[in-house]
């Protein structure tokens, strides 16, 4: 009688503990996720090791999840500042596009931690690349930037994510809002474009005439646009 055995559990290969030279290959917005401190907006940074190859011949990968916070005590801000080698200015806060870190190299500090019968590799800090090493590199893995703020929803980017990561994102209310978004009607889009269009010589002349009482209808139109 033939014997058919179940495969043994495959252990995930981990990068070595200590420091690793790596390149950022993924910036993925996870949406609002439950944490021990309540629901928080989160983002994941993914890194590909540049000096350590797995037994399958491919570079090893590691990621870290962050709360989207710019508080000086937040892990995200501390890692970004140590990565850049400088403090973030007030002008950068709220305007720094995290996707610009794709392809940027870093020195990762990491340690192994055991929980139950499993061992995990965790990034403890992200540092500026050491002197003499390239500041940017092209990873073997496809570089991925995924945002839940994009409209319409980035279906192609979402489809490229692994199943487990799509499941995490799909549980967030931000995902549901992004999927339910409906674009404005063509008429409304035309109205919005008209409101944002710069004034032409003709509209300026009509406005001047209206201010002299020469065109009451045009005057009323311009009065409706006064923001107070």
Q: What is the rounded Rg?
A: 26 Å
Biggest sheet layout: 6 strands, mixed
Low-confidence segments = 214-228
Structurally, how many domains make up the residues? 2
In total, the number of strands is: 6
Q: Supply the number of helical segments.
A: 7
Alpha carbon gap, first and last residue: 87 Å
Note the beta-strand portion.
25-35%
Instruction: Bin the helical content.
Output: 25-40%
Plain-language structure description:
The chain has seven helices and six strands, in the order βββαβββαααααα. The protein has 228 residues and is α+β, with helices and mostly antiparallel strands. The protein folds into two domains: 18-180, no CATH class; 186-224, no CATH class. Strands 1, 2, 3, 4, 5 and 6 form a six-stranded mixed sheet that branches. Strand 1 and strand 2 (38-53) form a beta hairpin. Helix 6 (201-211) packs across helix 7. Mean pLDDT is 86; it is low at 214-228.
Explain the layout of strands and helices.
Blueprint: E1 18-35, E2 38-53, E3 59-67, H1 75-84, E4 105-115, E5 118-127, E6 144-146, H2 155-159, H3 163-170, H4 173-180, H5 186-196, H6 201-211, H7 216-224
Parallel strand pairs: 1-6
Antiparallel strand pairs: 1-2, 1-4, 2-3, 4-5
Helix pairs in contact: 6-7
């Amino acid at each position: 009688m033939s014997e058919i055995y179940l495969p043994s559990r495959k252990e995930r290969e981990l990068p070595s503990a200590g420091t690793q030279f790596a390149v950022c290959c993924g910036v993925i917005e996870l949406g609002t996720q439950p944490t021990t401190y309540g629901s928080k907006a989160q983002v994941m940074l993914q890194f590909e090791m540049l000096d350590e190859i797995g037994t399958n011949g491919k570079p090893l990968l590691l990621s870290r999840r962050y709360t989207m916070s710019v508080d000086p005590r937040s892990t995200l801000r501390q890692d970004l500042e140590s990565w850049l080698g400088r403090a973030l200015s007030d002008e950068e806060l709220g305007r720094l596009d995290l996707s610009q870190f794709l392809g940027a190299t870093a020195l990762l500090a990491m340690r192994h931690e055991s929980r139950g019968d499993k061992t995990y590799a965790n990034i403890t800090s992200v540092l500026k690349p050491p002197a003499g090493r390239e500041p940017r590199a092209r990873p073997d893995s496809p570089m991925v930037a995924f945002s839940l703020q994009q409209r319409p929803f980035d279906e192609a980017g979402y489809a490229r994510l692994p199943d487990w990561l799509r499941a995490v994102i799909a549980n967030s209310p931000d995902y549901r809002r992004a999927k339910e978004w409906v674009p404005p009607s063509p008429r409304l889009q035309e109205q919005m474009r008209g409101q944002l269009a710069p004034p032409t010589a003709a509209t300026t002349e009509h406005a001047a005439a209206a201010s002299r009482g020469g065109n009451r209808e045009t005057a009323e139109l311009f009065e409706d646009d006064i923001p107070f």
